[in-house]
Amino acid sequence: MRRLRRLPIGARAALAAAAMTAAVGLLASWLVLTALAETQRDRLAEVVRMHVDGLSLALGPAAQRRDIWEIYDTLDRAAATGDGRLALTVVADDRGLVLAASDPRRAPTDSALAALMDEAQPIDALGDPGLSARLRVLAPLAHQGRRVGDILTELDVADLVTERRRVTLALLIGNTIATASLTLASYLVVRRALRPLETLARRMGDADGAPTAIPLDEAPRSGGEIARLFRTYNGMVAAIADKADAGRRLAERERFVSLGRLASSLAHEINNPLGGLLAAADTLRSYADRPEVVRSSAGLIERGLSRLRDVAQAALDQHRIADDAAPMTPEDVDDMRLLIGAETGRLGQRLDWRVAAEPAALAQWPATRLRQIALNLLLNASAAAGRGGRLGLALTVGDGGLRLEVRDDGPGLGAAALARLTSAEAPPPGGGLGLRLVRELAIELGGSIEHARDGAETVVAVTLPGRPGTREA
């Protein structure tokens, strides 16, 4: 049953129609054979009644007088005038003893009639002879309304059995041919009728989330429900395509709106610190000889630049610039050390820097993305290590690709920060996007991220597979 359920609906419907046709053929054969058996039984019953009724009239007085010779004479005359179907006739008295028989050797006089009554059927309840060539029928022998004995008749029904076998064989052959032809025809008709549904199901199954319209040459040419179903499906496909196109246009418009809002926000966030910086610069120019004014203006400049750095960092976290064309070079590594060195120097931190990679090997990876990964991890490690802490970077290139390992002696990553770095789920609210950016960049480059706690240090390692065809720096 499971295999049948896996078949296409056209094949299942065709097989069901074929099975129903075969069942109808079998039922028709059974009805014909049953009617033939009833007809033969009626013929036999008529023959037996005529034979018994005639013998009852002729043998009644002789059986009452126990005139054996008259009974023999009557049986001889009945056998001579019969149609050859009577194989044996036995006449018994009311005590069940044989008076005479058409074949005395099989039924001697004064023998018990019960010895011949095996498989004998009463004349009033005559059944189907089946495939037996002989049929025995037992009937009462009456005279003047009184039972004086019994008549046992054995009929030769071999011709009827042969006729039944011949009819059965012809019926089976004919019905088999007719049923097979009708079964094949019904299978082909149903399969052809349901072929459009199979086409529709195949198209929907091959769509893989993006349904495509069915060409006109595959749609049914005639009208009807199937044709309307095809037209409805093509209309749905067109509506989905229109909706997707409208969604793309809306997303493009939203993107431009978002870019406009971003530009406006950035301009606003940058303009305010710039005003303070310009005022501080003007103050320095006017009061360069007053140390307290210089210190105050320098503090204002530092705070304004810090604000601008925060704005720039937020913009980088939210909207990074992809630049896969520029390969990684040793100069990019030096720039990373210089940039993180300013932060570690400000916090009085110790930086361990270990790079073991040839320029040609580094050129396999894009500089922009690799720099973003390294700087985000280093800035996060510096913030975790705190003032006077220790952090380090180890960059190696081997057969397995590039391995970038960042360590710090801070307290370790919290659950929310670890989820941003390693989980595919949506990041929890709050916190920066630097760690999530590291994960997305690593995945885009086909890499993996490992996190471990090594003694008092937190270790985050990013492994990037090598690219075929190393590019020269």
Automatic annotation (TrEMBL):
One of its GO terms (cellular component) is membrane. Residues 191-245 form the HAMP domain. Residues 265-468 form the Histidine kinase domain. Signal peptide: none annotated. Pfam families: HATPase_c, HisKA. SUPFAM superfamilies: ATPase domain of HSP90 chaperone/DNA topoisomerase II/histidine kinase, Homodimeric domain of signal transducing histidine kinase. Its EC number is 2.7.13.3. The keyword DNA damage does not apply. One of its GO terms (molecular function) is phosphorelay sensor kinase activity. The keyword Transferase applies. It is an enzyme of class 2 (transferase). Keywords: Kinase, Membrane, Phosphoprotein, Transferase, Transmembrane, Transmembrane helix, Two-component regulatory system. It catalyses: ATP + protein L-histidine = ADP + protein N-phospho-L-histidine. It is found in: Membrane. Gene3D superfamilies: 1.10.287.130, Histidine kinase-like ATPase, C-terminal domain (3.30.565.10). This is histidine kinase.
